[in-house]
């Protein structure tokens, strides 16, 4: 089957052949071929002009009627326009469906171009973010939402996490904002109203804190009487049969007291109120205090080793860091067999400061590692209760790490022990206070 270009070629050869024969018969072959070439060129120019005028406004002008290869060109362009029109209709339908569905969302949705300008937003963005049509289209979002937490989030460009900020339109409402990159540098901002969730979380924290606080007084009274009865049971023959029950009750009362204290600690860490002022924390001194306590609990049953950089301090809250360190070290002592090692290391490198507690205990199964920082989660319930554990120690460690912008890394294998490492960012590292400055302060 011949193509349009083949037909055009045969037509040109035939025309010029006939022109050459006529030119030879008339004695002017060159002039005849030149006239034929000029006519052929003019015909092409006429078709180019007609095609150009039609392409300028194909909707207002009918498609040009022509012959030969130009007929096929026009036909191909018409087909291309039809396909383009159908694709455009499909895309318009998809966009309309997207806008309809996102308009029905309770979450605010904002489409941003590669340089952060607003391309589109739904109705919820008007209610929650205060965006207005059409004046805010094309504006940079950071110029309209100027909360420091959000502007810092956008400037860093790390969208793996969300950020919380108050609504600029409803100041008593809390928003959870998340940016999702897509396409060629474009971004999608999703803002969710989490006010009710924050209220429920606050109610839960208040309940835990209040309940724990109220339990302290009756537990203190109970422990006081049990201490007296335990002493009497050791001396008086009449209470001798009750010695074991009283000792067990006293042990459980002490354990309940530890649970209450840990719950109060967690309630404070959960709140937005700092549990102490931020200061230069003497971590080596904290390590010394915790290691002394651990050796007292161990009574020589464990080999407790320490590798501590004595000149490495960090900015933070000393009471929180002490609580996290004590939980890690004492857990290691309580949950590892006698004769094993517990190693504590505190050092720094270009990535930041690192606190590591390592033991040679039974280890943690891989499936349990993601959950060991949950409250009251126990890998081995019997072993934890037997050692007096509350199931809250690692939850406290996790919260302290998060409040200091640190990352808690847990590595363990059954039978190979556990390694807990808190990685503190380099910006928190501080040098020991110079002696001259300390003397001047005194």
Report what the structure shows.
This protein has 4 domains: 4-96; 105-193, PAS domain (Beta-Lactamase); 197-270, Helix Hairpins (Orthogonal Bundle); 279-430, 2-Layer Sandwich (Heat Shock Protein 90), CATH 3.30.565.10. It is elongated. The strands form 3 sheets. It has a 5-stranded antiparallel sheet, sandwiched between helices. It has a 5-stranded mixed sheet with strand order 7-9-10-12-11, covered by helices on one side. The chain has a 3-stranded antiparallel sheet with strand order 6-8-13, covered by helices on one side. The chain has 442 residues and is an alpha+beta fold. It has helices at 4-26, 29-56, 69-103, 123-129, 141-144, 148-156, 195-235, 243-270, 283-298, 318-334, 381-386, 393-403, 435-441, and strands at 108-112, 118-121, 163-166, 174-182, 186-193, 279-281, 303-308, 313-316, 341-349, 352-359, 407-412, 418-425, 429-430. Helices cover 52% and strands 17% of the residues. Residues 435-442 have low confidence and may be disordered. α7 (195-235) runs antiparallel to α8.
